[in-house]
Amino acid sequence: MNQQSFANTRRLTVFMLRLDRWRILIWLAALAFFTLVVPIAFSDLYPDQQDRNTMAQTMENPAMTAMVGPGALEDYTLGAMTAHQMLLLTAVIAGLMNILLMNRHTRSDEEDGRQELIRSLPVGKLSNLNASFNVLSLVNLLLAIITGLGLYALGFESMGLSGSLLYGLILGVTGMFFAGVTALMAQITENARTAFGFSMALLLIAYLIRAIGDVSNEALSWASPLGWVSGAEVYGGNNWWTLLLLAGSTIILMVLAFYLNAIRDLDAGFLPSRPGQKHASRRLLSPFGLAFRLQRTGIISWAIAMFLVGVSYGSVMGDLESFFKSNEAVRQVFGREEDASFTMQFVSVLMFVMALIATLPAVMAVLKLYGEEKRGRLDQLLGRAVSRKRMLTGYLIIAVMNGAVMLSLAVSGLWLAGASVTEEPFEFGKIFGAGLAYYPATLVMIGLGVFLIGFAPKLSSLVWLYLFYSFVVLYFGNLFQFSDWVSKLSPFGYIPELPVEEMKWLPILLLTIMAIGLMIAGVFGYRKRDIQGE
Amino acid sequence: MTLLKTENLTKKFGSFKAVDEINIDVKKGEVYGFIGPNGAGKSTTIRVLLGMLKATGGHASIFGKDVWRDAVDIHKRIAYVPGDVNLWPNLTGGEVIDLFMKLHGGAMNKQKRKELIQKFNFDPSKKCRTYSKGNRQKVSLIAAFASDADLYILDEPTSGLDPLMERTFQECVMKASSEGKSILLSSHILSEVERLCDRVGIIRDGHMIESGTLDELRHLTRTNLKVETKQNVNDLEDMEGVHNVARHEKMLSLQVDTESLDKVIRHVSQFGVLKLESAPPTLEDLFMRHYEGAGGES
User: What number is the ipTM of this complex?
Assistant: First the structure.
């Protein structure tokens, strides 16, 4: 590798920073915000060591350990609590940020032919990769400094300078590790989608290995870079040497990526690309089949995620009673109903949250149709013997089924995990009914999506805004004491809060009718309007 | 018999008239060339004909049916190839061809599909994300010509094809035409239109500025002449109907309006003609003339 290979790296670095300035700013701001706001919130919610010890008891079960890793539960200071509950998850998100940013500047740029343009200029063979590493080093360094110094600046007793810096650096270096992983994947695979998929898979595998290890066999956790994150024992033992472990492996990854980049052709990878199907399977050959095929991977990923969301909520139900009784602040979030048990109130809030999350993939499934239209792919389908109605109902059916499946999976996960940690578990039917009661609200959201696609497709992202509104008013409604009508502007506000409240059939029925009305109107509008070209 | 007919077809986007009172008729067995510069309104017209856009004025019908109301019925008998073929990155070319043929309806002609894939030298086993523009167009062309249709609507279908494949495409069009199928071919590759089309319509800024058979259109325009004479030709520049006179040593080149041809030849022959070459106006001359002429007005 001579000097030539890195020509013009500096200019490319500046150029990438220019391209990504907002993206980077938003990522850093969001990561810093959540890192800094959590200890503040914790210090409000659990002011005394006694509160924190109760929390530590709640956290002491295998499901929680699998989710956030081991923590210093015997000495649960504010710092230990923050590091335990936040560091691993934030590191995973920092990893995700690095995967996205790195993939964007390496394989994505290459696949879309932009690197060919750049490389035809007096720019070195490795300059692009080098510049990408420069950019991400800077991003991760900023992340480390902002979070590290920020945590220290909060001034909590249990969060000293050394621990805070280690916290920040662990985040930054874990991020860099996954930048290295992605850079390597970008050399090996031939397209950006696969590079992203492989990198994400490695992130998830690292998380899972650590989860299994933390629960059953500590030695296994050390096989995962995310195990090293928990192993650092931030605000406890402060094991700085785990940082060296992370940094060392990052450098190995980077060297490997540079080497593979140097020996390969532009646009080529190292995995043999296997030929695909020469003929379509029969299931693909309809507008519905195509719509399903296009969303299949997304649907499966969401299904797994929804089940895990349910499991993770269910797993904390064990010691809830004692926990709620001892903590006034938490009780406020979940409201007071004197005659209901705290666990039941907790469950009713969970039902709403899970129903709302389950609505996301359902709405995405129907808005996908407009995405296809914007990409100019619909002309070729509607230019054949396919009616607009058939096209739209294909997507609609997927969305409607999607909502039901996602909600059922989340609720089943909740019940399963709940049943395994509590001594007197809920009946499955009771929990399932409480969850499914929200389904009509999901249908209204889908209906609104269809309606907007039919009449004002450019405004279709308003559904997201409406969902966000629903979340804010209902989730924080108890805390901020909103008036009743504020929550009644959302369909979710009409659903009876089972199992705390009694079942009410009338709102369920009316919401369902409204959803169907919106859907029919949407189909009607869709048949009357122009289809956008590219 | 007229298969496709538009009467004063108009499409406005807001106050912008993308298509302004356009009249087209395509008869059975005819290849109709629809030519014009980029942004003239060709694709908009075609998208109205496909029922993607609703006309704001006038009327358009295919097979005697309304293009908006009876879109699905019409589409069972037409095949469409867009200029920008956007495909799904994670499906293979073969899968997309099957999908398109299936959605067209009718029986799947596997034999025809196989022949066309060979003819266009196409690899159907690759994911669409790896295809170049030309290969994406092949997907659309193969699906269109493998389907059984009475009318082919082709919107700049060859802009990414190499010359060999362009010839293959022209063969497909000629074969379809010989089988009595009709074709509406939008293009700005004039040699292609000249070779394939029976009639053409020229569109500019949403207006149809000329239409007819190629001969009819040529009649309206100029013939290129190259003359070598014994003596120098005088007074030529001032004659009516003579344009662009240029002298290269003894060779004289000029353009003559068709109606002045007789007069000009008589005049030139007085100077002792040694050599005379005449070329019919190409579609390109014709197109340029309209384009420049109209450009001059504005």
Answer: 0.77
